[in-house]
């Protein structure tokens, strides 16, 4: 069996706990993964003098796949976001976040099954800001035809591979006529040229948010620029139980990093209370990616086993972490998952 090297970034706060649990389950499922631990985040400052050391980026460029725990980012000052930096540095242009109802996790909504495609390298979210005069700051929103086109291609191609039926583009082109206007033109061009069989609609972002909370089942694949994607993906997570039950991926042409999309939760770090499910679900995305990209059937088998295991554990409802209404700690929940494999 071919063993695949994967960079492992434990991250900050609860990151080491949830990544360790994920590695334990993936090993128990029989996936042929060899982890390469690398530093990033606040913990890396002391050891390497940088929140995203060159050695970590070099390792990701070499092995081309990684799993990352949450990392801390200061608000209103301090160092630049680690997530923004590594996405730009590795050109991981597609943020992909599947959002679906999980068995046994009761929410106000049923039959939610969405996939968000978020452009990951430009727009306001990249944080290009300047103080032009005392008390006056500007923030630059950049959009390029190249980036708008390739994220649209990624969304439509996903529909073809996964049997999805519709792409909904969220935008504010009625106000931002140039940047969001370009995003719309590129999405239309991609669809008309290569994917006319896929249903398509354009929805102004504020109306889109209202429609999501009224009836999320009317949507399928959501396509949008960077900042909108950041906001809408968390909104959608709230439809199915929160950030603790949704995975995330950052995918480029030849490199991909999978991550738990929740924060580092320093208030509970080290107490064994963290829910590892979001990180584990991201690990399942990683395994499915490797199954396709490396044509490795063992990864696919392991991914299917893990998914069936956490669906069973959640459906049974006997072992749940506190955020899901239970009392189980990280280790107990992990043991339950492994027992269900």
Structural class: alpha/beta
Instruction: Please list the strands of the largest sheet in the order they lie side by side.
Output: 2-1-3-12-11-4-5-10-8-9
**Percentage of β-strand residues:** 15-25%
* Number of H/I helices: 11
CATH class of the largest domain: Alpha Beta
* Order of helix and strand elements from N to C terminus: EHEHHEHEEEEHEHEHEHEEHHH
Average pLDDT taken over every residue = 95
Do you know the CATH topology of the largest domain?
Isopropylmalate Dehydrogenase
CATH architecture of the largest domain: 3-Layer(aba) Sandwich
* Low-confidence runs: none
Helix content: 40-55%
**CA gyration radius, whole angstroms:** 20 Å
The CATH H-level superfamily of the largest domain is: Isopropylmalate Dehydrogenase
Count of distinct structural domains? 2
- End-to-end C-alpha gap: 20 Å
Gross morphology is globular
The largest pleated sheet is described as: 10 strands, mixed
Number of strands: 12
């Amino acid at each position: 069996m071919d063993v695949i090297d994967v960079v492992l970034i434990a991250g900050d706060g609860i990151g080491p706990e949830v990544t360790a649990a994920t590695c334990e389950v993936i090993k128990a499922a029989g996936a042929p993964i060899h982890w390469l631990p690398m530093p990033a985040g606040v913990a890396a400052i002391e050891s390497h003098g940088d929140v995203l050391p060159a050695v970590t980026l070099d390792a990701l460029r070499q092995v081309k796949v990684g799993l990352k725990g949450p990392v801390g980012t200061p608000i209103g000052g301090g160092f630049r976001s680690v997530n923004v930096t590594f996405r730009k540095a590795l050109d991981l242009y597609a943020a992909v976040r599947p959002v679906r109802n999980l068995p046994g996790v009761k929410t106000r909504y049923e039959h939610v099954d969405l996939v968000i495609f978020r452009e990951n390298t430009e727009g306001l979210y990249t944080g290009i800001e300047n103080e032009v005069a005392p008390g006056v700051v500007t923030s630059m929103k950049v959009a390029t035809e190249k980036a708008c086109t390739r994220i649209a291609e990624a969304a439509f191609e996903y529909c073809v591979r996964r049997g999805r039926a519709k792409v909904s583009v969220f935008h504010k082109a009625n106000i931002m006529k140039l940047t969001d206007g370009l995003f719309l033109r590129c999405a239309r061009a991609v669809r008309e040229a290569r994917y006319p069989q896929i249903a398509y609609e354009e929805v102004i972002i504020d109306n889109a948010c209202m429609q999501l909370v009224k009836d999320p089942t009317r949507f399928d694949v959501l396509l949008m620029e960077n900042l909108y994607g950041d906001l809408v993906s968390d909104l959608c997570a709230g439809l199915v139980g929160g950030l603790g039950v949704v995975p995330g991926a950052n995918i480029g042409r030849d490199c991909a990093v999978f991550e738990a999309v929740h924060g580092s939760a320093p208030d509970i770090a080290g107490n064994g209370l963290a829910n590892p499910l979001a990180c584990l679900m991201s690990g399942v995305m990683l395994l499915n990616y490797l199954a396709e990209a490396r044509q490795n059937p063992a990864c696919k088998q392991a991914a299917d086993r893990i998914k069936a295991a956490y669906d069973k554990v959640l459906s049974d409802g006997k072992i749940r972490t506190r955020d899901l209404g239970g009392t189980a700690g990280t280790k107990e929940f992990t043991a339950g998952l492994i027992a269900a494999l």
